[in-house]
Structure formats: C-alpha cells, structure tokens
Amino acid sequence: MALSTKLMMRQGQSLVMTPQLLQAIKLLQLSGLELTAFVEEELERNPLLERVEDRPDPTEHTAQSEADERGETDFGPEDSFDPSEAIEAREGDWATEQLDVDTGALERNLGTEVENTFDSDRAATPLEHATSNETADFSATSWTGAPGGAPDGEAPNLEAYVASQRTLGDHLVEQLAVAVRDPVDRLIGHAIIDSLDETGYLAEPVEDIAGRLGAAPERAEAVLKIIQTFDPSGIAARNLAECLAIQLREQDRFDPAMQAMIANLPLLAKRDFVALKKICGVDDEDVAEMVREIRKLDPKPGRAFGGAPVQPVIPDVTVRPASDGSWHVELNPEGLARVLVNQTYAAQVSKLRGTAADKSFVSNCLQTANWLTKSLEQRARTILKVATEIVRQQDAFFAHGVEHLRPLNLKTIADAIGMHESTVSRVTSNKYLSSPRGLFEFKYFFTASIAARTGNESHSAESVRFRIKQLIDQESPEDVLSDDAIVAKLKSANVVIARRTVAKYRESLRIPSSVDRRREKTAMQS
User: Fold this and answer.
1) Which residues contact 403 (CB under 8 A, 6 or more apart)?
2) CA distances from 511 to 139, 262, 473, 480, 520 (A)
3) Residue of 414 and 284 predicted with greater confidence
4) Looking at domain 449-525, which of 1.10.10.60, 3.30.70.3270, 3.40.50.720, 3.40.1130.10 is its CATH number?
5) What is the mean pLDDT of residues 178-189?
6) What are phi and psi of 431, to 5 degrees?
7) Residue 127 has what pLDDT?
8) Which of 163, 169, 271, 422 is the S-S candidate for 516 at Cβ 3.0 to 4.6 Å?
9) 204: Cβ–Cβ under 8 A, 6 or more apart, which residues?
10) Can you give the pTM of this predicted structure?
C-alpha cells in the first residue's frame, strides 16, 4: 500500500484551558489571606486597578466643590475667622507673658525628668541648655508644643516608644550576660541558645556544638547546665524527661520516687499505675499526687514566647437566623477583595501618544483588570451559592446541634446547584462559615455515612463520633465501657457500626482504651 501526503480540513470541538481560566480556577480555591495577598500583588503590578475604599466619595467631592465656589471654609457661620482678631490675640497678654520656671520644681511636679517626656510635650531647645540651678525662660506655646509636636512639623513617631516583641533568644541572652563572665563560655552559650527550637528544646547534640566551636565537650556541657537554670523553667532540655526533671528539681520535688516515675514515662502514658506503684514504691494516693504534680508542669517551656504570629481566621460566609425560622446566608464583607477598574485613567492614558509597546501594555493591563474584577465577582457568587446549599442540607445541625448532622458529599451539593464536583471541592477548600454554633470550615459538613439499623436513614460519622464521646464522658469508674459495649449501645440507638470503627473514632478523639481509663479513674478516686 502506497503512502502519500494530502491536506484535509476537519472541524471539531475541544476544551482548551486558557491562562485566564486557569487563573480563575486558582482564585476559586484560594483562602481569604491568600486572595488578599494575590490582589495586593495585582494592585502593585496593574496601574488601572484600584481599591474600592481608595476611590473618593463623589458626594463629598461635590459638596466640597460647591463650598469652595461659594468661598466657604471649614469654619461654620458662627466661627467666622477675622485676621485682625488673630493679630490682637497674638499681641495679647497670654502670648507675650514670659514664664520663669525652675526646672527642678518642674521635674518634681511631673514625677519624672524632663528629658523623658515625649517630643510633643516639651520644647527641646530651651530646656536642653537649662540646668537644675538655672531657670528656663520660655513661653507657654513653646512648652505645649506647636501643632505636629516635632520641630519639622511632623507628628511624633509613637512607634519609637512601643516595645518590640521579646523572643526566647533575647530573653536567654540577657540572662547569659549576667550568669556567665568568661568570653569563651558566653560564645558557647550563644551557640546553644541559637540551637533551641520554638518549644525550648535543644535541637543539636552538645558534642556537635562543642566540635563546631573547637571547645571541650565537658565545657559545653557545663554551660548547658547553667542555661538550664534560666527562666523559663525547663529550657534547653534534650528530651521530655529532662525538661520535667529540671522543673521538678527547681520545685524541690525531684525525690527518688519522682525520679523513678520520670524515668518510666511510657508507663505513665499507658496509665499503668500498678506497675508505677511497684517501681516507685508508693501507694495509690502518692501515685495520684505525683501525677497531678506532673500535669502542672509545662512540657514546652519555649512556646510562651511564641513563634510565628497567629493569623486570625476571617469567615467567608455568615449565617444568622431569620425571623421566619429559616437561615440568612450572606458573604462577609471583610473577607471580600474589592477592586475596581479606573476607566477614567485608562481613557486618559489611551489618548496619549506612545509607542506600540506602550499601547500594548495599557491594553493588557485593561484586559487583566476587567478579567480580575469579573473573576472576583464570580468567585463570590459561587461561594455564596455553595454555602447556601450547605446550610439548607444541614438545617437540623444549625438548629439542634452536632447530633443532627447529616451525612453529605460533594456530589449532592454539585447536583443541587448544577455545578461540577471539582468546582464544589475547590470552593470548600480553606473557606470558613460563621454561625451561632461557632466557626466551621466548609469541609466539616461533608462526612461519611453510617448505616442505620432500621429504616433508610443514615447517620453522619461526626455525629456518631460525638455520641461516642458522650457515652465515655458519662461512664462511671465502676462501669467503664469497652469498645464492644459502646457498639451495643449504639446499636440500641439505631446505629450500625463495627468495633474497629469505634476504636478508630475513639483514638481520633484522643480517648484512651477502657483499661487505661479504668486505671486512671481508680487512681483519681483513691
């Protein structure tokens, strides 16, 4: 069969992911903070974009223009300004009167030195050359300060008087400067402090620090012991046992019995109080008292100084009850990124003569700005549509609580609002809903389904998890429920669940097993 080449025309349709479509999909799954950062970058990059709050109010501009045309100022009709009166006031007794003030008496009246006052509270020139035995001759206006408070007319920098946030390293370095005098030991101490993590634990072996500095390991160990006496208690420990031991030693409670318990923390985690009594050689009452003392200790002493600042969660949607018993769903204005296209500026720039590159840049900026505003509007409408359907599906939860949470999946929401599951998945990522029940992520309302014993109604996995926690909280020390007993109780409540599923839910709630709970409650009772 001979092969030949020829030209053919064929018509077809295909889905092409344009850069604008890809960017719109990306915008849909961004969180509130990520969206704000993205919009800020676009505002810096695109001169045709502007914030809504940056645009002046046209009503205020019109009123001010009319007032300027009439020759009116900010003074009211009763407060008309007369220049002659100003001259007379300037030449009056108050402005011309000179005050002889003793700086020593002034400091006693203020309760502080004059040099410690704010810039806006004093006149620097007259007082800088006055001594305690001299009198400063200055006018009242020089003491109260001119408007603006600073010699150059600018307002005083209040940020200069605000203390910066203290870090753990700064706090320890200050103590190191007082406790250690030898320069070499201070250098080793700085290296040890730099090796601490956010929780206050030593993240690098002492031998490695000593080897890096060319010092003896024994000397580095001695400096470490000094740092471990610093505040906060338990700092620079190498593990949890050493951290607890440091705190107990400072409280004078690190006796042989406590030493044995700290050396057997795995048994304490398992709540094996019988074995701990044998190892420590104490009775039930002493074991319970020792456990209570250990619980009062701080296992992460460095977290008091914090690490990265905690970002508050701004809800994207607010749900509140309506007067007719339904729920009112609305977008949170604080979570919306509102930008506008400056059409006036775009028209002015387009009229200017420029090169082809300049015109192409302006055209691309205008196209990008129009696309961004439409994408943000479409994103807001999609979030509101998905949130409204979630609230409709979970109406019983908002009215009665987590026990009435229904099983829900993405396909149910997608079919109800006529969208694809992937779109709903992007909308529910990193989005939050504020309601009288609290603040919830959209993903919280999508839970697995657990079959009921009778009937076609199923139960939400989250509601079943809540029931398990309720059963365990209500149990008594004499009747601690095992996983099989919990399964039986749930079956009597029309919930079909396997024992391994109960164990999985119990572990996700960080609830120990029935054996460990019985040991703990027995020890607490004794």
Assistant:
1) 463, 466, 467
2) 74, 23, 10, 13, 12
3) 414
4) 1.10.10.60
5) 91
6) -115, 145
7) 38
8) 271
9) 195
10) 0.60
